[in-house]
Amino acid sequence: MSETLKNSDFISLAPVPVTVAGIAIIATRCLSVLMLANELGLEEIANFVHRSAQAWDSTLIFIASQLIFFYELRCAFLLLRGSNRGRWGFAATQLVVLLYMLLASTGAVYPEIFSISGASNAQIIHHTLMQKLPDLLVLGLLFVPAGSRAFFRKR
């Protein structure tokens, strides 16, 4: 069996940082959904979806959040296959999510479905950046190591 896997074409020859980043994206996204479902329960999830569907603007943001979730998963699989589009796509989604969370949390954008509460804007920004720190580390694995950059350049 090990000879089959060693000689197989479907196994990516991605460097370790790229493989770790791709698996981390998939694992964190899937685990976060499972943990959220466990924390809220079926009734609260239904209430959240119902509240999100009350107005067009909150419905659009809810749908956009689901599309971003699936696009991030798609980018992770593209990363594991060696696509540079996956790397830049994940970076773009993180920028969009960070901007929306900052604007919604400070009250600059309505509706504030996905916002972080805090006593002051500085505290809100700090909490938001701390929440996005794992994704920043994943981006670092994709853009900083020379092996990662070379891997995406040659593809």
From TrEMBL:
<feature type="transmembrane region" description="Helical">
    <location>
        <begin position="133"/>
        <end position="152"/>
    </location>
</feature>
<keyword id="KW-0472">Membrane</keyword>
<protein>
    <recommendedName>
        <fullName>DUF2593 domain-containing protein</fullName>
    </recommendedName>
</protein>
<feature type="transmembrane region" description="Helical">
    <location>
        <begin position="58"/>
        <end position="80"/>
    </location>
</feature>
<feature type="transmembrane region" description="Helical">
    <location>
        <begin position="92"/>
        <end position="113"/>
    </location>
</feature>
<feature type="transmembrane region" description="Helical">
    <location>
        <begin position="12"/>
        <end position="38"/>
    </location>
</feature>
<keyword id="KW-1133">Transmembrane helix</keyword>
<dbReference type="Pfam" id="PF10767">
    <property type="entry name" value="YbjO_DH-like"/>
</dbReference>
<keyword id="KW-0812">Transmembrane</keyword>
<dbReference type="InterPro" id="IPR019703">
    <property type="entry name" value="YbjO_DH-like"/>
</dbReference>
